[in-house]
Fold each of these.
Amino acid sequence: MKVNTLTSIGILINTLITAFIYFTEAYKGLDIVMIIALIMCYIGFIVMQCNQAKIGSIIFCIGSVLFIPIGLVGIIGVRKIVEHIEAEKFKKLHYE
Protein backbone atom coordinates (compact mmCIF):
# COMPACT_ATOMS: atom_id res chain seq x y z
CA MET A 1 0.00 0.00 0.00
CA LYS A 2 1.44 3.31 -1.06
CA VAL A 3 0.89 6.21 1.32
CA ASN A 4 0.18 9.57 -0.28
CA THR A 5 2.08 12.79 0.35
CA LEU A 6 -0.60 14.36 2.55
CA THR A 7 -0.46 11.45 4.98
CA SER A 8 3.34 11.65 5.19
CA ILE A 9 3.25 15.42 5.68
CA GLY A 10 0.52 15.03 8.29
CA ILE A 11 2.50 12.56 10.38
CA LEU A 12 5.61 14.74 10.09
CA ILE A 13 3.72 17.83 11.26
CA ASN A 14 2.14 15.88 14.13
CA THR A 15 5.62 14.72 15.17
CA LEU A 16 6.98 18.28 15.11
CA ILE A 17 4.04 19.60 17.15
CA THR A 18 4.51 16.84 19.72
CA ALA A 19 8.25 17.56 19.95
CA PHE A 20 7.55 21.28 20.44
CA ILE A 21 5.05 20.58 23.22
CA TYR A 22 7.36 18.05 24.86
CA PHE A 23 10.28 20.49 25.03
CA THR A 24 8.21 23.53 26.07
CA GLU A 25 8.02 23.98 29.83
CA ALA A 26 4.62 25.72 29.70
CA TYR A 27 2.86 22.66 28.26
CA LYS A 28 4.00 20.00 30.73
CA GLY A 29 1.18 17.54 31.30
CA LEU A 30 -0.16 17.95 27.79
CA ASP A 31 2.91 16.23 26.39
CA ILE A 32 1.82 12.75 27.54
CA VAL A 33 -1.55 13.12 25.82
CA MET A 34 0.10 14.32 22.61
CA ILE A 35 2.63 11.48 22.67
CA ILE A 36 -0.20 8.95 23.00
CA ALA A 37 -2.02 10.59 20.08
CA LEU A 38 1.18 10.55 18.01
CA ILE A 39 1.73 6.86 18.79
CA MET A 40 -1.81 6.19 17.54
CA CYS A 41 -0.96 8.02 14.31
CA TYR A 42 2.13 5.87 13.82
CA ILE A 43 0.21 2.67 14.63
CA GLY A 44 -2.46 3.65 12.10
CA PHE A 45 0.25 4.42 9.55
CA ILE A 46 1.87 1.00 10.08
CA VAL A 47 -1.47 -0.83 9.95
CA MET A 48 -2.20 0.90 6.64
CA GLN A 49 1.13 -0.42 5.32
CA CYS A 50 0.01 -3.95 6.25
CA ASN A 51 -2.92 -3.78 3.76
CA GLN A 52 -5.47 -2.90 6.42
CA ALA A 53 -6.18 0.61 5.11
CA LYS A 54 -9.64 1.03 6.58
CA ILE A 55 -8.65 0.05 10.14
CA GLY A 56 -5.36 1.95 9.87
CA SER A 57 -7.11 5.09 8.65
CA ILE A 58 -9.53 4.99 11.59
CA ILE A 59 -6.67 4.66 14.09
CA PHE A 60 -4.73 7.43 12.31
CA CYS A 61 -7.75 9.76 12.35
CA ILE A 62 -8.39 9.17 16.06
CA GLY A 63 -4.77 10.05 16.80
CA SER A 64 -4.90 13.13 14.55
CA VAL A 65 -7.99 14.61 16.22
CA LEU A 66 -5.86 16.22 18.95
CA PHE A 67 -3.78 17.96 16.31
CA ILE A 68 -6.75 19.79 14.72
CA PRO A 69 -6.62 22.03 12.67
CA ILE A 70 -3.15 20.94 11.47
CA GLY A 71 -4.14 17.29 11.90
CA LEU A 72 -6.61 17.69 9.06
CA VAL A 73 -3.72 17.35 6.59
CA GLY A 74 -3.14 13.76 7.65
CA ILE A 75 -6.85 13.00 7.94
CA ILE A 76 -7.46 14.20 4.38
CA GLY A 77 -4.51 12.10 3.22
CA VAL A 78 -5.77 8.86 4.74
CA ARG A 79 -9.27 9.58 3.50
CA LYS A 80 -7.94 9.83 -0.06
CA ILE A 81 -6.15 6.49 0.35
CA VAL A 82 -9.34 4.77 1.49
CA GLU A 83 -11.33 6.35 -1.35
CA HIS A 84 -8.72 5.14 -3.86
CA ILE A 85 -8.87 1.59 -2.48
CA GLU A 86 -12.67 1.60 -2.59
CA ALA A 87 -12.61 2.83 -6.20
CA GLU A 88 -10.17 0.06 -7.15
CA LYS A 89 -12.40 -2.55 -5.50
CA PHE A 90 -15.42 -1.16 -7.33
CA LYS A 91 -13.62 -1.30 -10.69
CA LYS A 92 -12.44 -4.84 -10.05
CA LEU A 93 -15.90 -5.98 -8.99
CA HIS A 94 -17.83 -4.37 -11.84
CA TYR A 95 -15.43 -4.21 -14.78
CA GLU A 96 -13.32 -7.36 -14.56
Amino acid sequence: MESSGEGAHQRKPLFALVLTLIVSGLVLLGIAFALNSMYKTVVINDDGRQRVEVVTMLSTVEDVLNQYEVELRPEDKVVPALDEPIADGDEISIKRATAVRIIADGKDKTVFTTQDTVLDVLQEQKISLGQRDKINPGVGQKVRPGLNITITRVTQEEILERETLPYEVVVKKNDNLELGVERVVQQGQEGQLERKIVVVYEDGREVSRQVVKEEVVSQPVNAIVEKGTAKYFTTSRGERVKYRKALNMIATAYTAGYESTGKRPGDKNYGRTATGAKVKRGIVAVDPRVIPLGTKLYVQGYGYAVAADVGGAIKGNRIDLYMDSTKEAYAWGRRRVKVYILR
Protein backbone atom coordinates (compact mmCIF):
# COMPACT_ATOMS: atom_id res chain seq x y z
CA MET A 1 0.00 0.00 0.00
CA GLU A 2 2.83 2.34 0.77
CA SER A 3 4.53 1.66 -2.59
CA SER A 4 1.43 2.62 -4.44
CA GLY A 5 1.08 5.99 -2.67
CA GLU A 6 4.67 6.90 -3.44
CA GLY A 7 4.15 6.29 -7.20
CA ALA A 8 1.18 8.61 -7.40
CA HIS A 9 3.09 11.30 -5.60
CA GLN A 10 5.93 11.14 -8.22
CA ARG A 11 3.52 11.43 -11.23
CA LYS A 12 1.97 14.77 -10.10
CA PRO A 13 5.11 16.97 -10.51
CA LEU A 14 5.75 15.54 -13.98
CA PHE A 15 2.22 16.36 -15.15
CA ALA A 16 2.51 19.87 -13.85
CA LEU A 17 5.76 20.38 -15.74
CA VAL A 18 4.28 19.15 -19.00
CA LEU A 19 1.23 21.32 -18.52
CA THR A 20 3.40 24.33 -17.83
CA LEU A 21 5.44 23.71 -20.98
CA ILE A 22 2.31 23.37 -23.08
CA VAL A 23 0.82 26.57 -21.72
CA SER A 24 4.09 28.43 -22.18
CA GLY A 25 4.34 27.21 -25.74
CA LEU A 26 0.82 28.30 -26.46
CA VAL A 27 1.52 31.72 -24.96
CA LEU A 28 4.71 32.09 -26.96
CA LEU A 29 2.91 30.95 -30.07
CA GLY A 30 0.16 33.52 -29.43
CA ILE A 31 2.72 36.24 -28.85
CA ALA A 32 4.56 35.29 -32.02
CA PHE A 33 1.31 35.29 -33.98
CA ALA A 34 0.35 38.66 -32.56
CA LEU A 35 3.77 40.11 -33.34
CA ASN A 36 3.69 38.71 -36.84
CA SER A 37 0.27 40.19 -37.48
CA MET A 38 1.59 43.67 -36.55
CA TYR A 39 4.23 43.69 -39.30
CA LYS A 40 3.08 44.86 -42.76
CA THR A 41 4.77 44.50 -46.11
CA VAL A 42 4.42 47.73 -48.11
CA VAL A 43 5.71 48.79 -51.58
CA ILE A 44 7.00 52.34 -52.05
CA ASN A 45 6.78 53.41 -55.74
CA ASP A 46 8.85 56.59 -56.15
CA ASP A 47 7.64 58.23 -59.37
CA GLY A 48 8.01 54.97 -61.28
CA ARG A 49 11.78 55.22 -61.16
CA GLN A 50 12.28 53.24 -57.96
CA ARG A 51 10.03 50.56 -56.47
CA VAL A 52 11.02 49.23 -53.02
CA GLU A 53 9.30 46.66 -50.79
CA VAL A 54 9.57 47.47 -47.09
CA VAL A 55 8.33 46.00 -43.80
CA THR A 56 6.84 48.22 -41.14
CA MET A 57 4.85 48.22 -37.97
CA LEU A 58 3.79 51.85 -38.37
CA SER A 59 0.21 52.75 -39.08
CA THR A 60 0.04 55.72 -41.56
CA VAL A 61 1.55 56.52 -44.94
CA GLU A 62 3.44 59.50 -43.55
CA ASP A 63 4.94 57.34 -40.73
CA VAL A 64 6.19 54.74 -43.21
CA LEU A 65 7.78 57.38 -45.47
CA ASN A 66 9.43 59.06 -42.49
CA GLN A 67 10.66 55.67 -41.26
CA TYR A 68 12.49 55.11 -44.53
CA GLU A 69 13.57 58.76 -44.85
CA VAL A 70 11.69 59.46 -48.06
CA GLU A 71 11.84 63.24 -48.58
CA LEU A 72 8.90 65.02 -50.12
CA ARG A 73 8.25 68.47 -51.59
CA PRO A 74 4.99 70.13 -50.61
CA GLU A 75 3.92 69.86 -54.26
CA ASP A 76 4.60 66.11 -54.57
CA LYS A 77 1.50 63.96 -54.84
CA VAL A 78 1.23 60.87 -52.59
CA VAL A 79 -1.44 58.17 -52.96
CA PRO A 80 -2.86 57.18 -50.53
CA ALA A 81 -2.77 60.52 -48.71
CA LEU A 82 -0.20 61.00 -45.96
CA ASP A 83 -2.76 60.70 -43.16
CA GLU A 84 -4.34 57.54 -44.55
CA PRO A 85 -3.83 54.23 -42.62
CA ILE A 86 -1.59 51.60 -44.17
CA ALA A 87 -2.41 47.92 -44.57
CA ASP A 88 -0.34 44.89 -45.42
CA GLY A 89 0.22 44.65 -49.16
CA ASP A 90 -0.51 48.33 -49.85
CA GLU A 91 1.48 50.39 -52.38
CA ILE A 92 2.46 53.95 -51.66
CA SER A 93 2.74 55.83 -54.97
CA ILE A 94 4.72 59.07 -55.12
CA LYS A 95 4.37 61.39 -58.10
CA ARG A 96 7.21 63.88 -57.98
CA ALA A 97 6.49 67.53 -58.84
CA THR A 98 8.30 68.84 -61.92
CA ALA A 99 9.84 72.33 -62.10
CA VAL A 100 8.17 74.37 -64.84
CA ARG A 101 9.06 77.95 -65.80
CA ILE A 102 6.14 80.25 -66.68
CA ILE A 103 6.72 83.57 -68.43
CA ALA A 104 3.53 85.62 -68.61
CA ASP A 105 2.12 89.06 -67.83
CA GLY A 106 5.54 90.56 -67.22
CA LYS A 107 6.46 87.90 -64.66
CA ASP A 108 8.96 85.07 -64.81
CA LYS A 109 8.42 82.37 -62.20
CA THR A 110 9.18 78.70 -61.63
CA VAL A 111 6.52 76.43 -60.17
CA PHE A 112 6.51 72.77 -59.16
CA THR A 113 3.64 70.73 -60.45
CA THR A 114 2.40 67.17 -60.82
CA GLN A 115 0.02 68.08 -63.64
CA ASP A 116 0.26 66.23 -66.94
CA THR A 117 -0.20 68.94 -69.61
CA VAL A 118 0.48 72.63 -70.12
CA LEU A 119 -3.26 73.33 -69.92
CA ASP A 120 -3.47 71.53 -66.57
CA VAL A 121 -0.58 73.61 -65.22
CA LEU A 122 -2.25 76.87 -66.30
CA GLN A 123 -5.52 75.86 -64.68
CA GLU A 124 -3.68 74.88 -61.50
CA GLN A 125 -1.94 78.27 -61.44
CA LYS A 126 -5.22 80.05 -62.27
CA ILE A 127 -3.73 81.56 -65.44
CA SER A 128 -6.35 82.19 -68.11
CA LEU A 129 -5.81 82.52 -71.85
CA GLY A 130 -7.49 85.09 -74.05
CA GLN A 131 -8.92 84.22 -77.44
CA ARG A 132 -5.98 85.78 -79.30
CA ASP A 133 -3.20 84.97 -76.84
CA LYS A 134 -0.23 82.97 -78.03
CA ILE A 135 1.28 80.15 -75.97
CA ASN A 136 4.43 78.16 -76.53
CA PRO A 137 4.42 75.20 -76.35
CA GLY A 138 0.78 74.38 -77.03
CA VAL A 139 -1.72 73.59 -74.29
CA GLY A 140 -1.62 69.87 -75.13
CA GLN A 141 2.14 69.58 -74.58
CA LYS A 142 3.11 67.04 -71.90
CA VAL A 143 4.90 68.39 -68.84
CA ARG A 144 8.58 67.46 -68.67
CA PRO A 145 11.55 68.64 -66.61
CA GLY A 146 12.96 71.98 -67.77
CA LEU A 147 9.76 72.96 -69.62
CA ASN A 148 9.37 76.69 -70.34
CA ILE A 149 5.86 78.01 -70.92
CA THR A 150 5.69 81.41 -72.60
CA ILE A 151 2.41 83.28 -72.88
CA THR A 152 2.16 86.30 -75.15
CA ARG A 153 -0.87 88.47 -74.52
CA VAL A 154 -2.39 89.58 -77.82
CA THR A 155 -4.85 92.45 -77.94
CA GLN A 156 -6.20 94.56 -80.74
CA GLU A 157 -8.06 97.82 -81.10
CA GLU A 158 -9.79 99.69 -83.88
CA ILE A 159 -8.75 103.28 -84.41
CA LEU A 160 -10.14 105.90 -86.76
CA GLU A 161 -7.69 108.09 -88.63
CA ARG A 162 -8.70 111.21 -90.53
CA GLU A 163 -6.67 112.58 -93.37
CA THR A 164 -7.11 115.90 -95.11
CA LEU A 165 -7.40 115.73 -98.87
CA PRO A 166 -5.85 118.83 -100.45
CA TYR A 167 -7.68 120.76 -103.11
CA GLU A 168 -6.16 121.87 -106.39
CA VAL A 169 -5.95 125.41 -107.66
CA VAL A 170 -7.37 125.66 -111.17
CA VAL A 171 -6.10 128.73 -113.02
CA LYS A 172 -8.19 130.11 -115.86
CA LYS A 173 -7.08 132.85 -118.19
CA ASN A 174 -9.32 135.87 -118.47
CA ASP A 175 -8.75 138.21 -121.40
CA ASN A 176 -10.94 140.79 -119.75
CA LEU A 177 -8.73 140.94 -116.68
CA GLU A 178 -5.55 142.96 -116.72
CA LEU A 179 -2.27 141.09 -116.95
CA GLY A 180 -0.87 140.33 -113.47
CA VAL A 181 -4.25 140.63 -111.78
CA GLU A 182 -5.77 137.52 -110.20
CA ARG A 183 -9.34 137.02 -109.03
CA VAL A 184 -10.61 134.15 -106.89
CA VAL A 185 -13.80 132.88 -108.47
CA GLN A 186 -14.28 129.92 -106.14
CA GLN A 187 -12.71 129.25 -102.76
CA GLY A 188 -11.02 125.88 -102.37
CA GLN A 189 -12.16 123.47 -99.71
CA GLU A 190 -10.23 120.51 -98.36
CA GLY A 191 -11.80 117.07 -98.42
CA GLN A 192 -11.64 114.44 -95.71
CA LEU A 193 -10.66 110.77 -95.79
CA GLU A 194 -11.42 108.34 -92.97
CA ARG A 195 -9.53 105.11 -92.37
CA LYS A 196 -10.51 102.35 -89.97
CA ILE A 197 -7.34 100.62 -88.80
CA VAL A 198 -6.93 97.48 -86.70
CA VAL A 199 -3.84 97.71 -84.49
CA VAL A 200 -2.46 94.49 -82.95
CA TYR A 201 -0.39 94.52 -79.76
CA GLU A 202 1.69 91.75 -78.24
CA ASP A 203 2.36 92.27 -74.53
CA GLY A 204 1.46 95.92 -75.01
CA ARG A 205 3.83 96.49 -77.94
CA GLU A 206 2.41 97.30 -81.35
CA VAL A 207 3.31 94.65 -83.90
CA SER A 208 1.04 95.44 -86.82
CA ARG A 209 -1.65 97.72 -88.16
CA GLN A 210 -3.95 97.06 -91.08
CA VAL A 211 -6.39 99.31 -92.89
CA VAL A 212 -9.72 97.48 -92.96
CA LYS A 213 -11.84 100.30 -94.35
CA GLU A 214 -11.17 103.53 -96.19
CA GLU A 215 -13.83 106.03 -97.08
CA VAL A 216 -13.84 109.52 -98.57
CA VAL A 217 -16.19 111.46 -96.31
CA SER A 218 -16.06 114.62 -98.40
CA GLN A 219 -14.44 115.36 -101.73
CA PRO A 220 -12.14 118.36 -102.01
CA VAL A 221 -13.50 121.40 -103.87
CA ASN A 222 -10.98 122.95 -106.21
CA ALA A 223 -10.19 126.63 -105.99
CA ILE A 224 -10.76 128.52 -109.23
CA VAL A 225 -8.57 131.54 -109.88
CA GLU A 226 -8.85 133.76 -112.92
CA LYS A 227 -5.60 135.21 -114.13
CA GLY A 228 -5.67 138.34 -116.18
CA THR A 229 -4.03 138.20 -119.59
CA ALA A 230 -5.19 141.56 -120.86
CA LYS A 231 -2.36 144.05 -121.47
CA TYR A 232 -2.91 147.76 -120.97
CA PHE A 233 -0.93 150.87 -121.70
CA THR A 234 -1.67 154.46 -120.86
CA THR A 235 -1.89 157.08 -123.58
CA SER A 236 -0.45 160.55 -123.29
CA ARG A 237 -3.92 161.68 -122.28
CA GLY A 238 -4.05 159.21 -119.42
CA GLU A 239 -6.37 156.78 -121.16
CA ARG A 240 -5.83 153.10 -120.37
CA VAL A 241 -6.04 150.99 -123.50
CA LYS A 242 -6.01 147.21 -123.78
CA TYR A 243 -3.63 145.70 -126.30
CA ARG A 244 -2.64 142.27 -127.52
CA LYS A 245 0.95 142.83 -128.55
CA ALA A 246 3.58 145.56 -128.58
CA LEU A 247 6.23 145.98 -131.28
CA ASN A 248 9.26 148.24 -131.45
CA MET A 249 9.23 149.67 -134.97
CA ILE A 250 10.82 152.35 -137.19
CA ALA A 251 8.10 154.86 -138.11
CA THR A 252 8.40 157.19 -141.11
CA ALA A 253 5.93 159.96 -141.92
CA TYR A 254 4.39 160.27 -145.41
CA THR A 255 1.78 162.31 -147.27
CA ALA A 256 -0.37 161.78 -150.36
CA GLY A 257 1.96 164.13 -152.29
CA TYR A 258 4.42 163.41 -155.03
CA GLU A 259 7.37 163.29 -152.56
CA SER A 260 5.91 160.30 -150.83
CA THR A 261 3.78 158.51 -153.42
CA GLY A 262 5.06 159.75 -156.81
CA LYS A 263 1.52 160.83 -157.64
CA ARG A 264 -0.02 164.20 -158.15
CA PRO A 265 -3.59 165.37 -157.75
CA GLY A 266 -5.61 164.03 -160.66
CA ASP A 267 -3.48 160.92 -161.06
CA LYS A 268 -5.21 157.56 -160.83
CA ASN A 269 -5.61 156.37 -157.24
CA TYR A 270 -4.16 159.62 -155.91
CA GLY A 271 -4.94 159.83 -152.16
CA ARG A 272 -6.04 156.20 -152.04
CA THR A 273 -4.48 153.38 -150.09
CA ALA A 274 -3.71 149.87 -151.31
CA THR A 275 -7.02 148.79 -149.80
CA GLY A 276 -8.87 151.54 -151.67
CA ALA A 277 -9.49 153.64 -148.58
CA LYS A 278 -9.07 157.40 -148.77
CA VAL A 279 -5.95 158.54 -146.95
CA LYS A 280 -6.38 160.57 -143.80
CA ARG A 281 -4.66 160.89 -140.47
CA GLY A 282 -4.77 157.52 -138.72
CA ILE A 283 -4.01 155.55 -141.88
CA VAL A 284 -0.69 153.69 -141.71
CA ALA A 285 1.20 151.46 -144.09
CA VAL A 286 2.61 148.16 -142.81
CA ASP A 287 4.18 144.88 -143.83
CA PRO A 288 1.14 142.57 -143.84
CA ARG A 289 3.35 139.67 -142.80
CA VAL A 290 4.01 141.50 -139.52
CA ILE A 291 0.75 143.37 -139.04
CA PRO A 292 -2.30 142.17 -141.01
CA LEU A 293 -4.24 144.82 -142.91
CA GLY A 294 -7.25 146.07 -141.01
CA THR A 295 -5.52 145.76 -137.65
CA LYS A 296 -6.26 148.52 -135.18
CA LEU A 297 -3.14 150.11 -133.71
CA TYR A 298 -1.93 152.74 -131.37
CA VAL A 299 1.38 154.34 -132.34
CA GLN A 300 3.33 156.02 -129.59
CA GLY A 301 3.46 159.79 -130.32
CA TYR A 302 0.99 159.46 -133.21
CA GLY A 303 -2.18 158.06 -131.80
CA TYR A 304 -4.82 155.60 -132.94
CA ALA A 305 -4.38 154.13 -136.39
CA VAL A 306 -5.53 151.43 -138.79
CA ALA A 307 -3.23 149.28 -140.90
CA ALA A 308 -4.78 150.08 -144.31
CA ASP A 309 -1.84 150.58 -146.69
CA VAL A 310 1.34 148.90 -147.85
CA GLY A 311 4.55 150.10 -149.44
CA GLY A 312 7.36 148.61 -151.45
CA ALA A 313 9.98 149.82 -148.93
CA ILE A 314 8.05 148.64 -145.90
CA LYS A 315 9.55 145.35 -144.79
CA GLY A 316 9.55 143.81 -141.33
CA ASN A 317 9.21 146.10 -138.33
CA ARG A 318 8.69 149.27 -140.35
CA ILE A 319 5.60 151.45 -140.47
CA ASP A 320 4.64 154.58 -142.44
CA LEU A 321 2.38 157.11 -140.76
CA TYR A 322 0.12 159.30 -142.87
CA MET A 323 0.35 163.03 -142.20
CA ASP A 324 -2.03 165.67 -143.53
CA SER A 325 0.79 168.05 -144.51
CA THR A 326 4.37 168.01 -145.66
CA LYS A 327 5.26 170.21 -142.71
CA GLU A 328 3.98 167.58 -140.29
CA ALA A 329 5.79 164.88 -142.21
CA TYR A 330 9.09 166.69 -142.04
CA ALA A 331 8.53 167.44 -138.37
CA TRP A 332 8.03 163.73 -137.67
CA GLY A 333 10.76 162.47 -139.91
CA ARG A 334 11.83 158.93 -138.88
CA ARG A 335 11.62 157.63 -135.34
CA ARG A 336 11.76 154.46 -133.27
CA VAL A 337 8.36 154.01 -131.66
CA LYS A 338 6.34 151.41 -129.83
CA VAL A 339 3.35 150.21 -131.75
CA TYR A 340 0.52 148.54 -129.82
CA ILE A 341 -1.70 146.03 -131.59
CA LEU A 342 -5.09 146.60 -130.02
CA ARG A 343 -7.67 143.98 -129.11
